[in-house]
Amino acid sequence: MLTPDSGTVALGGERLARPGMAAYGGRIGYLLQRTELFRGSIADNLLLGRPDANDDKLQIAVAAVGLDLAIANLSKGLHHQLGDGGTGLSGGERRRLGIARLLVASPDVDVFDEATEGLDGATAALVVENIRFETRGRAVLLATHHRVEAVNADTLLWIEKGN
């Protein structure tokens, strides 16, 4: 996050004066275009933003992104070990695991950058609908090139020829 040239940025009435996502103590969660996963279990990767989350919270998040059956079919389930970068998962599974991690973290503001990139249409629709459900009551910014993902947005910002 950049420091504004003029004006202020506030969250819940509190002025956010410092640049950088880390400065806000987990109040803003951000899903990068490239999903970062780490060597360790699926659960370890899900718990990065909220280490105190219980297994029920993890199960709800993986179900929201349609990974519940795939994970249940793994011999160790949520404790299945991933390699560096999420080795052992497909690109779409890695993407959805990143979304699930942000859902587990439950920040005040969720920022999804191309959340459904690389997902098929049916899976993308399920994920977007469940993001909407799981983040109710929170501020959500969903950056997308797919208009269908934005149809239920409260506010739509259209950027043409932007960088």
Automatic annotation (TrEMBL):
The keyword Transport applies. One of its GO terms (molecular function) is ATP binding. Pfam families: ABC_tran. Residues 2-116 form the ABC transporter domain. Keywords: Sugar transport, Transport. SUPFAM superfamilies: P-loop containing nucleoside triphosphate hydrolases. InterPro entries: ABC_transporter-like_ATP-bd, P-loop_NTPase, Type_1_exporter. This is ABC transporter domain-containing protein. It comes from Bradyrhizobium valentinum.
